[in-house]
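Pair request: fold both.
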Amino acid sequence: MTRARPRPLAAAAPPLQPATHAHFHSTRLLQLLAAGPAMPAPQPQAAFAEHLGQWVDVASAFTLRALHNSRPLPHAHHRPHRPDESAESTSARQALQQQVARVQARLTAAITLAVANVPQAKPEPVKFQGDAAAQDPGQTTPPSENEPSFAPYLKLYQTQQRAMQDQLLPLRANVRVALASACAELKPLARLDQAFEAILTERETRLLAQLPSLLEKRFQAAQQAAAEAAPGAHSDWQLAFGQELQTFLLAELDLRLQPTLGLLDAWPDGHH
């Protein structure tokens, strides 16, 4: 494998706004999966309870119910606010929005740079009629060392997934703590988010770890299509696949950011 010169970075998706109301089923990642040939067939609606049980067991369900029932009644803990509390809360929210934007931009840049520099195989030289291999039909051609492999893309994807997890989990915790400190009425929401994180993160990580396997099927399909193309046909299938992989990573980044953006969305514009 040889390292090609860095290719121009594909245009990154615009940063997400802190306030978002995107429906779960409209996430970019699910749209990409649904549009591809490697998406498993949807399960019957009757199996919903069974699938929900794979995410939340009985003990976790009791935990969530207890947290939900412990929320305070409206104005139960009303107290007079200092005149400057609203300004402090707004300032804290803006600082967190900027922090989230910086982390998102850093991860986006890392993804686009990694995809632009992924090692690619050189195309095989065209064999002319005078070549010995072309003249001897019985001669077996050894496997090419330049045969494209999914291995560099697998390493890239898994590396970026680890980077997302390592940076986004502490970011979510930071926003959660700040929200509870700035707005007493939203402390139950912060506790609920912490419980959801503890219950769902492990399974979410396992499911997202399956994405490279789906992408490998798309890699193999693109590779096969290029091999079956007419002789001499120009194909940038590796470049196209790299852009598709980048799109998947950016969509996964959007998905992983949703809980943090939801906490910011819940933050009141002014303390009241």
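--- second member of the pair ---
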Amino acid sequence: MTGTAVRRQTDLDEAGRRASAAVAGPDRKPGGAAVRADGNAAAAGADCPCRVLIVEDEPQMLDIIDYILTGGGYETRLAASAEAAWPLVKAERFDLIVCDIMLPRSSGLSFCRRVRELDQTPVCFLSALGTAEERVAGLEAGADDYIVKPFNARELLMRLQAILRRYHAGAAGPAVVNGPLQLWPQSNQAVVGRRRVLVSDSEMRLLRALAAARGRPVAWRELVALAWLTDAPETGQAMLKTAVHRLRAKLGDHSPPLIVAVRGKGYVMPDLG
């Protein structure tokens, strides 16, 4: 490691120690969690000066996140609320948005939904809210990742890199398009009109199989084999029914429906144009 890298890593470690000293353990309030900075965090930064918008209402935590990201090679813009961040989102281009959830007045969840109505800029939540239900709510709002405070500085940088890799891998366009439905396998995203949802690997494989056969019913055994990469077990039909129900809930109601059951055969996705 070069002398510059050593000094930068020492600075990041010191930032983590300052955060730990300033905040007495994890808290349910915004910014009420310490950052543990260790490892070669600086070396984990982006290869190019990607622009990141940081939305955090706790001044000390905002400074710490900004310090870590700029140390990792990112260009940053800072906002202390969703109201302050929204004009920046509309006026400027960002490669990534890092956002707290418990913001004053308008929550990070509401802000993320507004961003999704505008474009597909990746969003990563950083929050002290860490239950499974809270993480799921963040992902359902359209976030690409959800990191719980306290967090590790190097892990934060690596996970932001992973988000950007997935996003840019699919930047050339979706792999599958059927009318209003777009499938982005690289990031496990399904877009229907202005609604974007994250789906699991098996759900993405199921959607791709139906979209590839648009207008033609696909037998349930074939769908189970394609989606779960296994021969259809005895429970395969029930498993498929549950997966289709979950996908319908995620994708919302549409006319015509995106997935239609065909009695005695399986399922079909209509040709949506």
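Observation on the second member. The two ends are 55 Å apart (CA to CA).
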